[in-house]
Amino acid sequence: MAKKSKIKFTLDLPLFSLFALISMLLVVLDAFVLKGKIMPFIVSPTVKDFSFSNPLSYIKIVSHILGSQTTAPGIYLWLYGIVYVIFAGSEAEKTYGTVFLAIMLVLSSIFSGVLAACVLETPISTAFPVVFLLNFLTIFGNLKKNTLTASSLILLAAICAFDVIITKNPVILAVDAAGGLCGSLISFLAVPNKKPKASKKAPVKTETRATYHDGDDDDDTTVIGTFNL
To answer: Where residue 205 falls among pLDDT bands split at 50, 70, 90?
Structure first.
C-alpha cells in the first residue's frame, strides 16, 4: 500500500503574508476585543492633529496602512486591499525580492502619511497605498519591456473608481495614489531577481568498444569489430 504524501507548508509571500496577518489581527482585536481602542493609533495624521513634538504623529505616518474602519463601507475598502496585496504581491515579491519590496512599502506609507497630514482633515486607514504600489510596479515592469497592457490600465481605473466610491473623497484617492507612485518609482533603480539559468550538461561521451575474433568461423570471414554508440 502506497504511503500518503505529507502536505508541505510553504511561506510563499513572507512580506505580504506577514502584512496581511498583522492587519487582520489588529482589525479583529479592535472590532471584537478592545472595542475601538486600537484604530486611533493606526490612522494617518491630519492637518488638525499632526504635531512635530508628538511621537505618535510619526508612528501614524507609517502604521496607517495596517488599519481600517471596522464599520461599512470602510471595512470593504480594507478587505479589498488585503485580498489584492495577497494576490498581486506574489509576482512582485518574486521579481524584486522581499527586502527591496519592503523598502518600497515603507516609502509608500510614509509618502501617503505625510500627504495626509498636509491636506486631509479626516484620517485615512487602508492598505490602498500598497495596492497602488503593486499596480504601478506592474505597469512600470511592462514599460521596461516597451509594452503597456490594457488590463493593467483597466485595473488601475477600477482601483481608482472603487477608492472614490467608498471614500467619496477624490483627495483621499490622490493621497493613496501618490503614496503608491512615490514608493514604486525606485523600482527603476532596482535590479530584479534573475532566474537561475539552467546549467548546460556536458555531452555524454560514448565509448567505442571493439571485439576481435580469431577468424576461425566456418565461412572464413574475419570480423574486424562491432561498435556500440
So the answer is: low
Q: Supply the DSSP string of 200-213, one letter for each residue.
A: PPPPPPPPP-----
Query: Please, how many CA atoms are within 13 Å of residue 72, restricted to the half-sphere of its CB?
Result: 0
Q: What is the pLDDT of residue 141?
A: 86
3-state secondary structure labels for all residues of the chain: CCCCCCCCCCCCCHHHHHHHHHHHHHHHHHHHHCCCCCHHHCCCCCCCCCCCCCHHHHHHHHHHHHCCCCCCCHHHHHHHHHHHHHHHHHHHHHHHCHHHHHHHHHHHHHHHHHHHHHHCCCCCCCCHHHHHHHHHHHHHHHHHCCCCCHHHHHHHHHHHHHHHHHHCCHHHHHHHHHHHHHHHHHHHHCCCCCCCCCCCCCCCCCCCCCCCCCCCCCCCCCCCCCCCC
Per the structure block, which three cell numbers stand in for 77?
A: 475598502
Q: What percent of the chain has pLDDT over 90?
A: 29
Q: What's the pLDDT tens digit per position in 9-52?
A: 776 668 888 898 999 999 889 888 888 788 888 889 899 889 88
pLDDT digits (tens, 9 = 90+) for 146-176: 888 898 899 999 999 999 998 888 999 999 9
Please state the separation of Cα 18 from the chain's center in Å.
11
**Mean pLDDT rounded to a whole number for the chain:** 81
| 8 A C-beta contact, residue 16 and residue 85 | yes
Q: 128 is written with which cell numbers?
A: 490602498
